[in-house]
Write a structure and sequence with these properties.
It is a single chain. By secondary structure, the protein is of the alpha+beta class. Helices cover 34% and strands 18% of the residues. β4 and β5 form a beta hairpin.
């Protein structure tokens, strides 16, 4: 039985920041919104990076200041999805790339949602596909 598409599980309420936003402010957004990642978008709204808890750990471990712009420490090698992608394909992307968040983008590369590993797991457990 198919699991459905990204459209079925993506979160549409996005937390975004501009590339010049300080990491300190981005981390404050993460705490306030209780999220594990912030999407970084340029002036046109196109996705240019993602800042995750793992990026924060790396920054702290390297002794860098939280005052640096997020563009200096964000992940730019992006793995993205489209809302018509299957949930199974998203789960595979997460496993293959060791990631827990995948931005969902439109045809212009603008974020329209995000899928977390928790979203995928919750859907699988709730579906009849799970024994």
């Amino acid at each position: 039985m198919p699991l459905g598409t990204v459209r079925d599980i993506m979160t549409k309420s996005l937390v975004t920041a501009k590339p010049d936003t300080s990491v300190k402010h981005v981390v404050e957004l993460m705490r306030e919104r209780n999220v594990g990642s912030v999407l970084v978008v340029d002036e046109s709204g196109k996705l240019v990076g993602i800042f995750t808890e793992r990026d924060l750990v790396k920054l702290v471990a390297e002794g860098k200041s939280l005052d640096v712009p997020v563009k200096e420490v964000m992940t730019t090698k992006l793995v993205v999805a489209h809302e018509s992608d299957s949930i199974a394909s998203i789960a595979n992307k997460m496993i293959e790339n060791w990631i827990r968040h995948i931005p969902v983008v439109d045809e212009q590369g603008r974020p329209i949602g995000i899928v977390s590993i928790r979203d995928v797991l919750r859907h699988i457990v709730a579906s009849s596909a799970f024994p």
